[in-house]
Amino acid sequence: MEVPVAASARVWLDAARPATLPAALSPVLVGTAIADAFVPWRALAALIVALAFQVAVNFANDYQDATRGVDTAERTGPRRAVASGTVSAAAMRNAAALAVVIACAAGLALAATVSWWLIAVGAFCALAAWAYSGGPRPYASAGLGEAFVFVCFGLVATVGSAFVHDAAVPPAAWPAAVAMGLLASAILVANNLRDLPTDEAAGKRTLAVRLGDRPTRWLYVALLTGAFVCLPFVAWLAGEWQPLIALVVGLQAVLPSQAVLTGGQSGRGAAGSELVPILMATARLQLLVALLVTLGFMLAA
Questions:
Q1: Among 1-5, 7-11, 130-134, where is mean pLDDT lowest?
Q2: Distance CA 220, CA 216 (A)
Q3: Among 30, 48, 174, 252, which one has the highest count of C-beta atoms within 10 angstroms of its own C-beta?
């Protein structure tokens, strides 16, 4: 079996898509902050689970899109490792499997000390990570990628991160999970909007392809707006006002929203490579919201 060491560390770092990693880090921060108790090693294990699954999804997507012919020379985003020939398909497949093993190992440690039900959750996430772009009917090509991100990197990651500390779910974790899921989904929407022409040409029916260009742009704005609408519910259910300090970064959602709707050279919204900085700005926005919500709960403690 070929081991995933055929390329430089830089190539593997790029393949892990660091711009998307805030989608894994943010819900763990928020869920941990909302929990009444705090067990440091459990917080670290939850973070490993989330980050490893995110990397596994990215590696699997790199492998699957290359072998299915979705990633081509016409693609406008960052180059993909397998499609560009810098990493073999076998090495990328094995790297994705290794990332899943790491996530499952950390999850098993949590399950052994918190609840064995976490094994079922982990198995679901592992299957979902592969089926995202793999298998006979990858659901990313069925327009369900955003739903996967919302559930796994919003609901599961946020609620699960609180649960591993308290062995229960604080009420405030639910609207916080929705907020994290909406922001994480917005990252994917920006990504799929960028790739819409090439995905459509390759027959990959993402949600952006199914909705079309303009509705996808409004969906992006709606996701950002919905995330900030959730924050007052977090504060209300927690009985603390401090998490509301995250609302101050709401203005930072205006610039990427405006760029998606009316920016770019065409004036009808950023397109192609113009969406790359918007994707990164969306990821930074999610992380900033998570950090401020976390700070709010720390100040309330």
A1: 1-5
A2: 6
A3: 30
**CA angle 209–214–218, rounded 5-degree value:** 105
End-to-end CA distance of the chain: 51
The pTM (predicted TM-score) of the whole model is 0.90
Angle between helices 157-166 and 173-194 in degrees, nearest 10: 150
Half-sphere exposure of 257 (CA within 13 A, CB side): 16
The mean pLDDT of 242-261, rounded to a whole number, is: 92
Phi-psi category of residue 69: left, alpha or beta, with phi > 0 → left and psi -120 to 50 → alpha = left
Q: What are the C-alpha distances in Å from 34 to residues 37, 124, 136, 175, 208?
A: 9, 24, 39, 11, 33
CATH top-level class of 9-300: mainly alpha
> In 195-253, where does DSSP find H-type helix?
196-202, 207-211, 213-238
Tokens of 275: 């969406």
